Amino acid sequence: MNREDRLKRLRFRAWHRGTREADYMIGGYFDRLHQGWDEIALDWFEGLLNQEDVDIMGWAIGTIAVPSEWQGPMMERMQRIDYIDIPG
């Protein structure tokens, strides 16, 4: 799959999580930050999308310890939660 198609697929998956809260958190993270991602970062995010929303959100807000495979700069950036834009 070429990069453009992969990004479209990841964006769709990020914004169609099943709850509005997860959509804003995961979709917002993707929208704000994906432009500078290399293949390793895209692989990380794609793997993250396979995790349960409750886990991702818990890791991001610090209510659940982040498993070692998800620790690192990408998760640290997600934990800032300054990328969420909730329309008024």
Descriptive report:
- The structure is a single chain.
- By secondary structure, the chain is mainly α.
- It contains 5 helices and no strands.
- The protein has helices at residues 3-15, 20-33, 39-48, 53-61, 73-78.
- α1 (3-15) runs antiparallel to α2.
- It is globular.
- The model has no long low-confidence stretch (mean pLDDT 95).
Compact summary:
This protein is mainly α. It has 5 helices and no strands.
Q: Main traits of this protein?
A:
mainly alpha, globular, 5 helices, single chain, 88 residues
Rough shape? globular
Low-confidence stretches: none
Order of helices and strands: HHHHH
Give the tally of β-strands: 0
Strand content: under 5%
- Distance linking N and C termini: 36 Å
Could you give a short account of the major beta sheet?
A: none
As a percent range, the share of helical residues equals 55-70%
Spatial extent as radius of gyration: 12 Å
Structural class determined from secondary elements: mainly alpha
Mean pLDDT: 95
Q: With helices defined by DSSP (H or I, 4 residues minimum), what is the helix count?
A: 5
Instruction: Describe the oligomeric state of these chains in a short phrase.
Output: single chain
